[in-house]
């Protein structure tokens, strides 16, 4: 059976980036590898949906879909997965740009029997700490994982694991990654994805890094999804 990829992008108010990302994805992938690109909107009140709708109208080759969902990345990505027709799901943030012809790298790993994984990641910043954090993502260590690295997983395995846990308003990517590491089903593809450092610039690099570390420790110690979200709202959002 030939593998095809359904790209799933959850968005809320991403008018500045979503058009650029869709253009990039269609220019730097092979159409025979891509089943569709599914953008799942969680209640945008900017021009995001209009931009995606225009891309749908002007795209002659790629199937681009726009779905509307309740807000929450877990809910949005699960909805995208339910409608996906590809054998492989590729979850991508709106501010993350995968390596050129990422589809070939993903399908190559699937053929090797690697049913889930991500790319190593670098920030679009020259700050020394973010460069170090980027370098660390090429290791397979669990602590170096995060949703910004994007995530591919076969639809079969995704369904077996029950998808994203919708109780997690934040940390939903990491929760699924934890479950994949537990069954030793995760690989880091050694090609660079580039993601935005905008959250670090907005919140302050050291402040945000500290709070992310605390969230990681809280989860490791058994904190609930609700506890993590309350901490995030109080200290980051």
Walk me through this protein's architecture:
- The chain has 237 residues and is of the alpha/beta class.
- It has 2 domains: 5-196, Alpha-Beta Complex (Spore Coat Polysaccharide Biosynthesis Protein SpsA, Chain A), CATH 3.90.550.10; 197-237, no CATH class.
- Helix content is 43%, strand content 20%.
- The chain has helices at residues 18-27, 48-58, 73-83, 102-111, 128-136, 155-160, 172-182, 198-203, 205-220, 225-235, and strands at residues 5-11, 34-41, 64-68, 88-91, 96-97, 116-123, 151-154, 187-195.
- It has an 8-stranded mixed beta sheet, sandwiched between helices.
- The longest helix has 16 residues, at 205-220.
- The protein is globular, with a radius of gyration of 17 Å.
Give me the secondary-structure category: alpha/beta
Sheet with most strands? 8 strands, mixed
Number of strands: 8
Helical residues, percent: 40-55%
Low-confidence residue ranges: none
Distance between the termini: 44 Å
Q: What is the beta-strand fraction?
A: 15-25%
Provide the succession of SSEs.
Answer: EHEHEHEEHEHEHHEHHH
Write the layout of secondary structure elements.
Elements: E1 5-11, H1 18-27, E2 34-41, H2 48-58, E3 64-68, H3 73-83, E4 88-91, E5 96-97, H4 102-111, E6 116-123, H5 128-136, E7 151-154, H6 155-160, H7 172-182, E8 187-195, H8 198-203, H9 205-220, H10 225-235
Parallel strand pairs: 1-2, 1-4, 2-3, 6-8
Antiparallel strand pairs: 4-7, 5-8, 6-7
């Amino acid at each position: 059976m030939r593998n095809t990829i359904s790209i799933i992008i959850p968005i809320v108010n991403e008018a500045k980036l979503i058009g650029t990302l869709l253009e990039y994805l269609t220019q730097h992938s092979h159409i025979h590898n891509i089943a569709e690109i599914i953008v799942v909107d969680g209640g945008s009140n900017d021009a995001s949906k209009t931009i995606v709708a225009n891309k749908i109208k002007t795209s002659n080759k790629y199937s681009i879909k726009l779905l509307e969902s309740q807000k929450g990345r877990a809910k949005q990505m699960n909805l995208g997965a339910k409608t996906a027709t590809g054998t492989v799901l590729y979850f991508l943030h709106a501010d993350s740009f995968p390596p050129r012809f990422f589809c070939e790298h993903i399908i190559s790993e699937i053929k090797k029997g690697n049913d889930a994984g991500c790319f190593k990641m670098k920030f679009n910043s020259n700050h020394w700490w973010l460069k170090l954090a980027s370098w660390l993502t090429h290791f397979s260590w669990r602590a170096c994982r995060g949703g910004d690295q994007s995530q591919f997983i076969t639809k079969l395995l995704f369904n077996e694991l029950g998808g994203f846990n919708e109780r997690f308003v934040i940390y939903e990517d990491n929760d699924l990654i934890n479950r994949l590491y537990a069954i030793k089903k995760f690989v880091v593809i050694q090609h660079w994805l580039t993601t935005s450092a905008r959250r670090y610039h907005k919140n302050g690099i050291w402040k945000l890094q500290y709070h992310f570390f605390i969230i990681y420790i809280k989860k490791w110690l058994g904190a609930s999804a609700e506890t993590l979200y309350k901490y995030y709202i109080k200290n980051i959002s």
